[in-house]
Design goal:
The protein is mainly α. The protein is built from 24 helices and 11 strands. The protein has a 3-stranded mixed β-sheet with strand order 7-8-9. Strands 1-2 form a two-stranded antiparallel ribbon. The longest helix is centred in the N-terminal third of the chain and has 26 residues. Belongs to the SusD family. Pfam families: SusD-like_3 (PF14322), SusD_RagB (PF07980). It is found in: Cell outer membrane. This is RagB/SusD family nutrient uptake outer membrane protein. Keywords: Cell outer membrane, Membrane, Signal.
C-alpha cells in the first residue's frame, strides 16, 4: 500500500476567484472549520498540510488527459485516434484558440500551485517545525514552484511572475519575460538542491535531492546551458543508487509501477488504487473532464479498437480503448524489432480471442484474433489465416495519414493496468514516471554532443541502447561518434520515451517542432506555423484585466 497523504488549502488563480480545494496527498485530512487559516498554518500540522497542498497540481498534468494533449498531440510521434474529440491539438487548425478550456485549466491549476508555494514559503520561517524539517520542506516548495513555472513558461511564453501569495482577485497583470521566469526557476532549484542535501530515499512521491538534480539537468539542457546540464545529469547517474532495469518491458510491468520501488525512477507523481485518494471530483470549478474519474488515465489513451472482428472484445487485460492517439508511421519505422527490445516493450501487435459469443468458425478462445503488421501482407497470406490482419497499408495512406476510421493500429502498452477491478474502470493506480535514469543518459549525450564531444555522447547513448538490446544484439545496437546528430538523439528519445509526455517539449527545445511535425505528421503539416511553439493565453484571463493593452495575446491567436 502506498503512503497516502491528504490536505486542505484555500487557493486562488492569477485573476480568478478564491476557492477551497481538497485533494489527497501526504497527510490525514483534519476539519479545521473553527480556526482561521492564519492560525492553522502556524501549527506544525497546518504547516505540513500547507506544504503537502503544493503537490496537488502535479496530478492535473502527469497521467491526465490535458497533459498528454499538450505534450504528445501535434508532434512527430502521435496522430489522432478515431475517437478523439480534440483533433485541433493535432492539426493546429484555426479552432485551436484561447477559448479552449484545457488551456485555462492548466493556467489556473498551476497558478494555484504557485500560490500555495508562495503561501507556504511565507509561513514556513515562523512555523514550529524544526530547523531540519524547515530546510527539507523549503526544498520541496521551491522545487514545485520552479516545476510549475517551467510548464507555464514553456507552454505560454512570457507570463506573470508571482513570488508573494495572492489572497484576492487581481485586475491588472504584466507578462514577465521568459528569461526573468527562468532566473527564478534556477534560483529556486539551486536553493532546493542545498536544502534537500542528503534526502535521497523515495517517500511516496515527495521531492528528493536527486529529483532536483534531474529537473535541473532537463532545464539546463532546455536553456542551452550544456555544461551545467551535463554536470547535473552525471550527478544523478553517478551519485545516487538508481539503476537501469535490465528488461525494458519489465520497467513498465504493473508490478513495478510504484515509483518508490522502481530502481530506474528518479521522481514520479503518485496515484492510488483507492480512487478517493486520487483526483476524483477535484477542481470541478475549472473543468471536471480534465481530471475525469481520478487516477492515472494514460492506460486508456493509446489503445486501438477492433469492434466487429470475430472473437475479440476489450477486457481488463487488453485495456479499455479510448482510441485517442495512434503512433505515426515515423514512430513505428524508427524501431528495429529484430534488435531493439523497446519495440515489444512498448507496443502490442497481436490480440487473442476472448469473446465466446463472436468466435469465427473453427476459432477457439485463446486463438489469435487480430494481428497488426508493420509490413505489407499479401492477399494470399491473409486467406491462409483464420484471423484478421491489418497491415501498414491498411492503417496508413501513402502520405502517412491514417485511414478511416483510425481504430486499427499498434497499441502503446507502457501504461497498461490489468489489475483494475473491471474492464470499464478508468482510474489506475499506476504512478506517472516524471524522471527516469535513462533520460539522464540521453541528456548527458545531447549536452556532450553540443559541447563538441561526440565520442562521449555516443558512450552515454550506448548505455541506454545496451539495456534495449535483444539477446545477442548488444554489439549491433552500439552507435559511434559519427552517428551523433540532433536528429539521431530525437529518434533515440522517441524510441525510449514514446508517450511519456516529453515529446512536444523535446521538439520545441531543439527547434525541430515545425520541421519534424511537417515532415512526419500529415495532420499537422498543412497548418503548423512558427507561432505554434507557444500556446494561447486563456482568453478569460485577458478579458478580466483592466490593462488589456499591456497584457497582449500570443501572436497568431485570437
Amino acid at each position: 500500500m502506498k503512503k497516502i497523504f491528504r490536505y486542505i488549502i484555500a487557493s486562488i488563480g492569477l485573476t480568478g476567484t478564491l476557492g477551497l480545494n481538497s485533494c489527497s496527498d501526504f497527510l490525514e485530512e483534519t476539519n479545521k472549520n473553527t480556526v482561521t487559516s492564519d492560525q492553522f498554518y502556524k501549527t506544525a500540522e497546518g504547516m505540513e498540510g500547507l506544504v503537502n497542498s503544493c503537490y496537488a497540481p502535479t496530478r492535473i498534468w502527469y497521467g491526465k488527459v490535458i497533459g498528454h494533449l499538450l505534450t504528445e498531440a501535434g508532434t512527430d510521434e502521435m496522430l489522432p485516434g478515431g475517437f478523439t474529440g480534440y483533433t485541433y491539438f493535432h492539426d493546429y487548425s484555426s479552432t485551436l484558440q484561447a477559448t479552449e478550456t484545457g488551456f485555462l485549466f492548466v493556467w489556473k491549476s498551476f497558478y494555484r500551485g504557485i500560490n500555495a508555494c508562495n503561501t507556504a514559503l511565507e509561513y514556513l520561517p515562523t512555523s514550529p517545525l524544526s530547523a531540519s524539517q524547515k530546510a527539507v520542506r523549503e526544498g520541496e516548495i521551491r522545487f514545485l514552484r520552479a516545476f510549475y513555472y517551467y510548464h507555464l513558461t514553456e507552454t505560454f511564453g512570457d507570463i506573470p511572475l508571482r513570488t508573494k501569495s495572492t489572497i484576492a482577485p487581481e485586475t491588472t497583470a504584466l507578462r514577465n519575460s521568459k528569461d526573468e521566469v527562468y532566473k527564478l526557476i534556477f534560483s529556486d532549484l539551486e536553493t532546493a538542491l542545498t536544502q534537500l542535501k542528503g534526502v535521497v530515499t523515495p517517500q511516496g512521491g515527495r521531492i528528493t535531492e536527486p529529483a532536483v538534480a534531474a529537473l535541473l539537468a532537463r532545464l539546463y539542457l532546455t536553456r542551452d546551458k550544456n555544461t551545467e546540464a551535463l554536470t547535473m545529469a552525471d550527478r544523478v547517474i553517478n551519485n545516487y543508487s538508481y539503476k537501469l532495469m535490465s528488461d525494458y518491458k519489465a520497467l513498465w510491468n504493473i508490478n513495478n509501477s510504484d515509483g518508490s520501488k522502481n530502481s530506474e525512477v528518479v521522481w514520479f507523481v503518485n496515484y492510488s488504487e483507492n480512487n478517493n485518494l486520487n483526483d476524483y471530483g477535484r477542481y470541478d470549478d475549472l473543468g471536471y473532464y480534465w481530471l475525469w474519474e481520478g487516477g492515472n488515465h494514460a492506460h486508456v489513451l493509446y489503445l486501438p479498437y477492433f469492434g466487429g472482428d470475430k472473437g475479440w472484445t476489450y477486457d481488463v487485460e487488453t485495456g479499455r480503448p479510448l482510441v485517442q492517439y495512434m503512433p505515426s508511421k515515423y514512430l513505428l519505422n524508427i524501431f528495429d524489432e529484430t534488435k531493439d527490445a523497446r519495440w515489444a516493450g512498448s507496443f502490442r501487435m497481436v490480440w487473442y480471442a476472448n469473446d465466446p459469443t463472436s468466435l469465427a468458425s473453427g476459432m477457439k478462445l485463446g486463438d489469435t484474433s487480430v494481428v497488426i503488421s508493420k509490413t505489407p501482407v499479401s492477399a494470399e497470406y491473409r486467406k491462409s489465416k483464420p484471423y484478421v490482419i491489418y497491415d501498414v497499408n491498411d492503417i496508413y495512406q501513402a502520405d502517412g495519414l491514417p485511414t478511416i476510421p483510425r481504430w486499427h493500429f499498434p497499441a502503446l502498452i507502457k501504461f497498461a493496468d490489468p489489475t483494475r477491478s473491471a474492464r470499464d474502470v478508468i482510474n489506475s493506480k499506476r504512478d506517472a514516471f516524471v524522471f527516469r535514469l535513462s533520460e539522464m543518459y540521453l541528456i548527458a549525450a545531447e549536452a556532450s554532443m553540443k559541447l563538441g564531444d561526440n565520442a562521449k555522447a555516443a558512450s552515454y547513448v550506448n548505455v541506454v541502447r545496451s539495456r534495449a538490446a535483444l539477446p545477442g544484439q548488444a554489439a549491433a545496437m552500439q552507435v559511434k561518434a559519427s552517428d551523433m546528430t540532433l536528429d539521431f538523439i530525437l529518434d533515440e528519445r522517441a524510441r525510449e520515451f514514446a508517450g511519456e509526455q516529453l515529446r512536444w517539449f523535446d521538439l520545441k527545445r531543439t527547434g525541430k517542432l515545425i520541421e519534424r511535425a511537417t515532415k512526419y505528421n500529415s495532420f499537422a503539416a498543412p497548418n503548423i506555423k512558427a507561432y505554434h511553439t507557444l500556446r494561447p493565453i486563456p482568453r478569460v484571463e485577458i478579458d478580466v484585466l483592466q490593462n488589456k493593452n499591456e497584457f497582449l495575446q500570443n501572436p497568431g491567436y485570437n
